[in-house]
Design a protein that fits this description.
CATH topology: ATP Synthase, domain 1
Largest sheet: 5 strands, mixed
Order of helices and strands: EEEEEEEEEEHH
Shape: elongated
Subcellular location: Cell membrane; Endomembrane system
Radius of gyration: 16 Å
Pfam families: ATP-synt_DE_N
Low-confidence stretches: none
CATH class: Mainly Beta
Strand content: 35-45%
Distance between the termini: 27 Å
Membrane topology: Peripheral membrane protein
Number of domains: 1
Structural class: alpha+beta
CATH superfamily: F0F1 ATP synthase delta/epsilon subunit, N-terminal
CATH architecture: Sandwich
GO cellular component, one term: endomembrane system
Number of helices: 2
Function: Produces ATP from ADP in the presence of a proton gradient across the membrane.
Amino acid sequence: MHSILLEIITPQRKAFAENVNAVYVPTANGRIGVLPKHLRLFTSLTEGEIKITYGGKDWYLAIGGGFMEVTKEKISILVSRAVHADEINESELKKAQEEAKDKIRQKGKTEERTEALASLRRSYLELKVLGHHKHRQMPSMPSVS
């Protein structure tokens, strides 16, 4: 099966770098899939879940918004954040969810509520990624730090 180099980079680190068989990403117009030999493409990405297929398995990451460029040689994904399932602490995440819900219930400043909503959205996304990981009982995803 054909493969292509996929690099996922955040401002803090290179979160992933492997040859993959497919990647599925969230865009403003819906989810798109990219396979080796895909036509050149540059698109913006929305906050969401990336599905990566390689080694006969599917892997998932939660990402912040960013961009993806597809060339003949590689797929480059530049995002504000990328979180692997094995980097997620479920108990801390649930605690953060409750704190965000409390802030939303309070009639505070608009900025605080907006940040709380964003935090809550991120936590639900990360729990979804963690659920994929637990459901399949897969080994940890390799990453490049």
